[in-house]
From TrEMBL:
This is DUF2905 domain-containing protein. It comes from Virgibacillus subterraneus. The keyword Phosphoprotein does not apply. PANTHER family: BSR5223 PROTEIN (PTHR36443). The chain crosses the membrane at residues 7-25, 45-63. Keywords: Membrane, Transmembrane, Transmembrane helix.
Length: 66
């Protein structure tokens, strides 16, 4: 089993990669954006659905190898 230090490094790398990908994918059609004056609101509903589908597939494939 991995020790805690290696696990945190791996999680950090995964979060950095997700953050880099998110900057390119963050505003796809279907996301809700609202701007009025100084206030802006962005709710990435389609991005969340796409990420959810991708993660479901990844975890399903990883589960098959266990």
């Amino acid at each position: 089993m991995m020790n805690a230090g290696k696990l945190f490094i791996l999680l950090g790398i995964i979060f950095v990669v997700i953050g880099l990908i998110w900057t390119f994918v963050g505003r796809i059609p279907g996301d809700i954006s609202f701007k009025k004056g100084n206030f802006s609101f962005h709710f990435p509903i389609m991005t969340s659905i796409v990420v959810s589908i991708i993660l479901t597939l990844v975890f399903y494939i990883l589960g098959k190898f266990r």
